[in-house]
Amino acid sequence: MDLFTKVTTILVALIAIVYAIFSHYPVPPVSPIMYQWKTWGSFLTHKKFNIFYIDKQINNGTKTLVCLHGFPTSSFDYFKAYPYLIKSFDRIIFIDFLGMGYSDKPTGHSYSIMEQADIVQAVLNHIKVDAFHLLAHDYGDTVTQELLARIKEDGLQLPIKSVSLMNGGIFPAIHSPLLIQRLLHLPVIGFFLGKLNNKYTFAINLNRVFGSGTSPTMAEFYDFWAIVRQNHGYRVFGEILSYLDERYEHEDRWVSATKNTKIPLQFIYGPADPVNPAPFEEMYHKLIPNQYFDKLDDNIGHYPHFEAPEEVVKRLNQFLKKKGF
Predict the structure, then answer these.
(1) Residues 6 or more apart from 97 whose CB is under 8 A from it?
(2) What's phi and psi for 296, nearest 5 deg?
């Protein structure tokens, strides 16, 4: 047996052992706040899949906010912003995308931004939402871009009153996915890496996108992981990451829709974001000069609504006030 064969055999054996350990790792316990979040929710069956959403009516008014989350987490990302949001809105809706959060996470599925936009429309139609404001983050930004394109190019009648985006790769040319995202996106390597994911590797990789001094506590990382671990969500990371290719494929459609939308648009930006580095601000002002760009403190990273929830809601309210809402 030559050296290469020996090394390969050892590597395969190690992978098999590690996989055997992690594939049988118990599901993390549910924290009280996670339990409350899930009890608030309901499920809508969309094309045989169960989609989790929360529809919270806070007051009797009609000021409604729809929140869309990023990859690889869930609507639970907004739990720190929620206490501030309820002071400004009468109804708040959170949606977990297919493959994430408490929604179904089918394997071997062709995940797409188009399908996620269909899901958002289906949930809003199901719960009968009239005019609403939209707050989105990361992956949710791209879904929002598709919705804007449907309004602009396809004549979709969707009563969005304003759009606020946060730290999403809306400009593919300068978007910089983490190494782990690129590896997970690879056909074979990504398949095995996805199956080997665990709460420690998840926390290490997710921590890289937070700013200085704004990282979640280990308990909060475990909450994030516990939701990812639901229905083995970590196993479909690579399949969901097809959105990286979609961003390039539909770049003209989505950037044009963002640039030319008649809907008031705001971008809330955490500058300490390795996924959307400094050139992002310059490109935004160049391509979308007449819209609002709110840059947060230098230490805020990729999850502004988690890292600086009070400030994000403050900027959102200031924007809506300027636009007469």
Answers:
(1) 68, 69, 103, 116, 119, 139, 140, 143
(2) -85, -175
Of the ranges 86-100, 124-138, 189-203, 256-270, which one carries the lowest mean pLDDT score?
A: 189-203
Residue 88 contacts residue 80 (beta carbons within 8 Å) = no
pTM: 0.89
Both tokens assigned to 248: 């390039």
Nearest CA to 313 out of 149, 103, 161, 164 is that of 164
How many angstroms separate the CA atoms of 265 and 288, rounded?
9
Alpha helices by DSSP H, the chain: 3-23, 32-40, 82-85, 113-126, 139-154, 179-185, 187-196, 199-207, 218-229, 237-240, 243-249, 251-260, 279-287, 304-307, 309-322
Structure tokens at 46: 């969309």
d(CA 293, CA 269): 7
Residue 292 pLDDT > 90, yes or no?
yes
Measured CA to CA, the distance from residue 287 to residue 289 in angstroms comes to 6
The terminus-to-terminus CA distance of the chain in angstroms comes to 73
pLDDT in tens, 55-68: 999 999 999 999 99
Tokens representing 5 are 């064969």
Are β-strands 132-137 and 64-68 bridged in parallel, bridged antiparallel, or unpaired?
parallel
- Report the CATH architecture of 31-322: 3-Layer(aba) Sandwich (3.40)
DSSP 30: P
